[in-house]
Amino acid sequence: MFQDILEFFKNFGPWGLFIHSFADAVIFPVPAFFLQVSLSIMHPQDALWLATYGFIGCLLGTPLGYLIGRLLGKSVLYKILKKEWIDAATNMFQKNGEAAILIGSFTPVPFKVFTILSGCLNFPLWRLLAYAAIGRATKFYVVGTLFYLYGNAAEGMVKDVSLYIALIAVPLLLIGVYFNRKRKRKKMEQVKLAESTSESSPVVVEKTVLEQTSDQTPSA
Q: Is residue 109 included in any domain, yes or no?
């Protein structure tokens, strides 16, 4: 059935990829990557345009997937998606926080899991869109660039493109998350130190004034 749908999308070329990418961010279980590759093999000279159609479609579908999660809750995930996908995405959120969306863009876990789960967790929509833009653009345009540069020979290169991107991007993301958390922790410590200093200042001033007053009081 899904193969028939893919063939149907393929007939519409770039617009078919746009619709597929839109649905991929919402509910359709087959990643848009497969249609992008099929169309890029047929028209490698248009590979970058295809990547653009796919990227925009995914970005526009992201808020709808988010809305589904926000309105229907996490229970809807288990009805329409595989449990192992949901568990994997949930684990990423617990370990890496908001960076899970970027990391998820480079993993085999369908992106719709992250859009719907973000809505379930009341994750800020604007951040979801920002991370989706970075992650999905990377994946779409890496595939598009390979086909544009190498033509049909890129078919063998893109089979494990998600793995290669993940091996490079995920460690960099985790390093970024680590230093970001470290920076926030340091900032919080500075704020607490400033607050404790401001609270103790009046006592110090009062003590100083009393000492000065006692020094100036003439002895009997």
A: yes
Number of domains the chain is built from: 1
- Cα–Cα distance measured from residue 44 to residue 189, given in angstroms and rounded to the nearest whole number: 54
What does the DSSP assignment read for the chain? Answer: -HHHHHHHHHTTHHHHHHHHHHHHTTT-SS-HHHHHHHHHHH-GGGHHHHHHHHHHHHHHHHHHHHHHHHHH-THHHHHHS-HHHHHHHHHHHHHHTTHHHHHHTTSSS-HHHHHHHHHHTT--HHHHHHHHHHHHHHHHHHHHHHHHHHGGGGGTTSTTHHHHHHHHHHHHHHHHHHHHHHHHHHHHHHHHHHHHHHHHHHHHHHHHHHHHHHHHSPP-
**Does 189 map to a domain?**
no
Is 195 domain-assigned? no
Residue 213 counted as domain residue: no
* Per-residue pLDDT tens over the stretch 169-218: 566 666 766 676 677 778 877 777 777 776 655 554 455 545 555 555 55
Give the global pTM: 0.71
